[in-house]
């Protein structure tokens, strides 16, 4: 839609409307999910490779890497996200998750579809119950991060987690179900970016994904 907005005045001229529409259709054919955002925090440590137009990426890691990579959208609305993945993370501290931020009040969120050796809702967090969505039950919890890196620099913010009890590597995530549940616990609606991400902070693993 940015393409249309930038050329809005041209639509008054019938002769050039068709070529613009054809170009937009071509863009959508290459990128049917509308993906327009690349998350690449420390991606060099993960051998991160991606094709934004195709909605595909891969990563591999070995050691204390501390990275977050993925593809998604610059505005993290409550869309449904479909993905398929090859994800191997045995013995690794890592997550395969829908990941993003909310601006106000500032918060970081994860809908964890699969994980390695550590369940982030297992201990040291505030338990919020469960959400039934997309064929499984998700354990929901929050945590407070104090003076930690964020999208606005060092700050204090809430982390919202939903961890799928039956792990999977493909399917559709109905993100709105989690946003609605978290909203009862202070989650805002001023969305920042949203991606289907792989994060790792220890161990060894690899992943390749298609996102739409």
Automatic annotation (TrEMBL):
<keyword id="KW-0119">Carbohydrate metabolism</keyword>
<keyword id="KW-0378">Hydrolase</keyword>
<dbReference type="InterPro" id="IPR033123">
    <property type="entry name" value="GH11_dom"/>
</dbReference>
<keyword id="KW-0624">Polysaccharide degradation</keyword>
<keyword id="KW-0326">Glycosidase</keyword>
<dbReference type="GO" id="GO:0005576">
    <property type="term" value="C:extracellular region"/>
</dbReference>
<dbReference type="InterPro" id="IPR013320">
    <property type="entry name" value="ConA-like_dom_sf"/>
</dbReference>
<comment type="similarity">
    <text>Belongs to the glycosyl hydrolase 11 (cellulase G) family.</text>
</comment>
<keyword id="KW-0858">Xylan degradation</keyword>
<feature type="active site" description="Nucleophile">
    <location>
        <position position="108"/>
    </location>
</feature>
<dbReference type="InterPro" id="IPR001137">
    <property type="entry name" value="Glyco_hydro_11"/>
</dbReference>
<feature type="active site" description="Proton donor">
    <location>
        <position position="199"/>
    </location>
</feature>
<dbReference type="InterPro" id="IPR018208">
    <property type="entry name" value="GH11_AS_1"/>
</dbReference>
<keyword id="KW-0964">Secreted</keyword>
<dbReference type="GO" id="GO:0031176">
    <property type="term" value="F:endo-1,4-beta-xylanase activity"/>
</dbReference>
<feature type="domain" description="GH11">
    <location>
        <begin position="23"/>
        <end position="212"/>
    </location>
</feature>
<comment type="pathway">
    <text>Glycan degradation; xylan degradation.</text>
</comment>
<keyword id="KW-0732">Signal</keyword>
<dbReference type="Pfam" id="PF00457">
    <property type="entry name" value="Glyco_hydro_11"/>
</dbReference>
<feature type="signal peptide">
    <location>
        <begin position="1"/>
        <end position="22"/>
    </location>
</feature>
<protein>
    <recommendedName>
        <fullName>Endo-1,4-beta-xylanase</fullName>
        <ecNumber>3.2.1.8</ecNumber>
    </recommendedName>
</protein>
<dbReference type="InterPro" id="IPR013319">
    <property type="entry name" value="GH11/12"/>
</dbReference>
<dbReference type="GO" id="GO:0045493">
    <property type="term" value="P:xylan catabolic process"/>
</dbReference>
